[in-house]
Amino acid sequence: MPPRILLADDYADSATSMARLLELVGYEVFTAFDGIAAFNRALVVRPHVALIDLALPRLDGLTLARCFRAQPLLRDTALICLSGRILVQDEERVLSSAFDRLLTKPVIADTLIEVLDSVAHGIPH
After folding, report:
1. Which residues pair with 52 in a beta bridge?
2. Residue 86 above 80 pLDDT?
3. What is the pTM of this model?
């Protein structure tokens, strides 16, 4: 069974393209376009990894990450922050908040796959 990825991004075209790419390399991908939808979807699909945009509507990415960590069913999900506007001084705050990794948009496909493969390495298939 392939690792399950939840992709939470309000830019639907980008999310759809990224989801297709990840499916092509063997991941099972679920998408959500706002923070509340992402949290609700995660409770159902229980992803191994969540790719979370910081600038999500209805529930921002930092708050969503904290919700994951507070929910026993999702606590062990690897969380990767996606942001197009991260400043160097904000990196530490983002990573110390609840995220395991940080990727700056636009994400290069090879980099994304490399990060996911490294995170997913310990996930039972």
Report:
1. 8, 81
2. no
3. 0.91
